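Session log. Operator J.P. requested a structure for one protein chain; no other inputs attached. Running the standard single-chain path with token output.
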Amino acid sequence: MKSLEQLLSLLKLKKQLDNRYIGDNYPASWGRVFGGQVLAQSLNAAYDTVPKNRIAHSMHGYFILSGDIKMPIIYEVDKIRDGNSFTTRRVVAYQNGKAIFNMAASFQKKEDGVSHQIVAPNILPPEVLRTDIQQVESLKYKNPSYYESLKKSHPKMFEFKPVEIMSHIETKNAIPFSHIWFKTKENKNLSIPQKQQLLAFASDMGLLMTATKPHRKQINERPIFIASIDHAMWFHRDFDICDWLLHAMDSPSASSARGFTRGNIFSKDGALIASVTQEGLLRIKR
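Structure written below.
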């Protein structure tokens, strides 16, 4: 899968019944269903059941079981409430009759109100940075199999430019902060629901890896199993995902084989457009 149109087609689910949808899987190189895909597809299913004047402002999802990448996923939408200002939906994703993911999402009609935000971090702009693929070129001869795996896992419809050394190739322990610029490679006129679904997909890239930064020496000596447990997003303002966005991430805590991470996503001109939290399994393999 290389083009933005192909990804949008994947995220747009096929309707089977009034509240039942089916979707295929992103061909992730690690052999499990990609969490960002399920987040985006669940949001797509929920959007299909809400009035057109309602825009998603938050979503909270839990990953229950690892998804089988070879099987389609069934999504069922529960219409919890249709209020005067807010609409609430619950989405459950199934494979083999078992729930693998559930999500609650809230939608709101456009309203005026007070406005403030935190300031975007003052860091290097994307124009002077290398892409993630250029960063991993150093592994081409040192660890060719890992190099090919990282290249294969890269979503080709996006461009990513890490500010720091990528967690995947970091050999030294570091403070748990990371910043990544990203955007789609193609320019396309997108609706707000499409932009939010693409952002949900991309928000899962690199977020949990921030929790591994203080432990890179240990991880490089012993393999680690990483998997998302939950993922929440808040959409604050409209944005253009075809232009550079900055994902500023940190990990306040890791304990009990779990890592907790947060992210704030800014537009290039400094507007805070979304916030993200995620907890995931960080299990050192024996």
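Operator note: The CA atoms of residues 30 and 77 lie 28 Å apart.
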